[in-house]
């Protein structure tokens, strides 16, 4: 029995390093553990043997408990050291530069144009990209079956619901919502959709900016003044513009604005196709039908509207040759705009 106890001690001490500490305690010192099991055999011992074995048993228990306490202390201190190491900040370590994102070039152009119009006293509005036929066409003087609807190939979701083909429906929405409050001076950036095949100059989804003014006595000369100042704020103080007659169902009269070619200044180059001018936006006096659809009294109120494509202006400003570049999100391209201030 004595040998059994001594062998038990040797094995237990050996396994102390291998077992989980609590598992070891249960296995060797627990109520149903190895030591308790051997000690239950003492009942069969003679009166002379019992105190001798009892002494050995106590020694073995004391040894195991001592080893347990020592092992626990060792593990605790090792864990504390690890924790301390993890919490220590090495102030000599070189800093890591955080990766900074950059404003997308289209967003940059939108912000610049918004800022110019805000300077004129306009406020920024937006509207839904999933739009009703009523606002996208009908209220803009484009009744069903009007041939001018073909100017914009449309993604229809249902017969009445579509992806807006331009930002002009926000004109109709704002007129309806604000009526009869005046004046209106809003600028509206946003994404629009057309059933176009993507190529270097077309994208099925692109950005437009719309502007709308409605007030007493607004005249074409007000539009022209705003356009000239806008062009000069955007492209430089001596920028020239010209207006050409055009057609849009929601304006009458309508015009398109060209800027003097910002590359050749009129001498002729491939960008302006040797005309010296670059078309930049559509505009006109708000058609009375549009004002009426919004509930406005056309006998006392007039207005003008402007619509432009953001990608086109961005391509000109930053000399990007393919519109798809804006949507590839190639970090190498985007990073070039990180340091640009305008
Ligand atoms: N909505 C027109 C388009 O997408 C652009 C436009 C032209 C808007 C003239 C206007 C405008 O507000 O007056 O082609």
Label this structure with key terms:
seven-stranded mixed sheet; 20% strand; BirA Bifunctional Protein, domain 2; 40% helix; 342 residues; 2 domains; two-stranded antiparallel sheet; alpha+beta; binds 3,4-dihydroxyphenylalanine
Briefly, what is this?
This protein has 342 residues and is an alpha+beta fold. 40% of the residues lie in helices and 20% in strands. A hairpin with a 2-residue loop joins strand 6 (241-248) and strand 7.
How does this structure look, described?
With about 350 residues, this protein is of the alpha+beta class. It has 2 domains: about 1-85, no CATH class; about 105-335, BirA Bifunctional Protein, domain 2, CATH 3.30.930.10. The chain is built from 12 helices and 9 strands. The chain has helices at about 1-15, 20-30, 35-40, 50-85, 105-120, 135, 170-180, 220-235, 290-295, 310-320, 325-330, 330-335; strands at about 125, 130, 160-165, 185-195, 205-215, 240-250, 250-260, 275-285, 300-310. The strands form 2 sheets. The chain has a 7-stranded mixed sheet, sandwiched between helices. A two-stranded antiparallel sheet has the order 2-3. A hairpin with a 2-residue loop joins strand 6 (about 240-250) and strand 7 (about 250-260). Helix 2 packs antiparallel against helix 4. The longest helix is centred in the first third of the chain and has 39 residues, at about 50-85. It is elongated and about 125 Å long. The termini are far apart. 3,4-dihydroxyphenylalanine binds next to strand 8 and strand 9.
């Amino acid at each position: 029995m004595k040998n059994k106890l001594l062998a038990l001690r040797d094995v237990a001490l050996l396994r102390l390093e291998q077992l989980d500490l609590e598992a070891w305690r249960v296995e060797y010192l627990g109520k149903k553990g190895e030591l308790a099991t051997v000690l239950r055999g003492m009942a069969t011992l003679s009166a002379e043997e019992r105190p001798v074995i009892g002494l050995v048993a106590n020694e073995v228990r004391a040894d195991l408990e001592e080893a347990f306490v020592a092992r626990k202390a060792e593990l605790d201190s090792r864990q504390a050291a690890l924790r301390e190491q993890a919490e220590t900040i090495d102030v000599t370590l070189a800093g890591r530069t955080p990766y900074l994102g950059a404003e997308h070039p289209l967003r940059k152009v939108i912000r610049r144009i918004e800022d110019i119009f805000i300077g004129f006293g306009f406020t920024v509005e937006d509207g839904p990209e999933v739009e009703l036929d009523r606002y996208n066409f009908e209220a803009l003087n484009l009744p069903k079956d009007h041939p001018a609807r073909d100017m914009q190939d449309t993604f229809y979701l249902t017969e009445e619901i579509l992806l807006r083909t331009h930002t002009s429906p926000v004109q109709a929405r704002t007129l309806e919502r604000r009526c009869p409050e005046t004046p209106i001076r809003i600028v509206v950036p946003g994404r629009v959709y057309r059933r176009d095949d993507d190529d270097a100059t077309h994208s099925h989804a692109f950005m437009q900016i719309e502007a709308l003014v409605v007030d007493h006595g607004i005249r074409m000369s007000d539009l022209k003044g705003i356009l000239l100042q806008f062009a000069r704020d955007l492209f430089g103080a001596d920028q020239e513009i010209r207006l050409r007659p055009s057609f849009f169902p929601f304006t009458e009269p309508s015009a398109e604005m060209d800027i003097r070619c910002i590359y050749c200044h009129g001498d002729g180059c491939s960008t302006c196709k040797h005309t010296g001018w670059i078309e930049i936006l559509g505009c006109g006096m708000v058609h009375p039908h549009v004002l009426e659809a919004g509930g406005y009294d056309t006998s006392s109120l007039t207005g003008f509207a402007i619509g432009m494509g953001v990608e086109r202006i961005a391509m000109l400003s930053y000399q990007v040759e393919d519109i798809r570049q804006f949507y590839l999100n190639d970090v190498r391209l985007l990073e070039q705009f990180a340091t640009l201030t305008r």
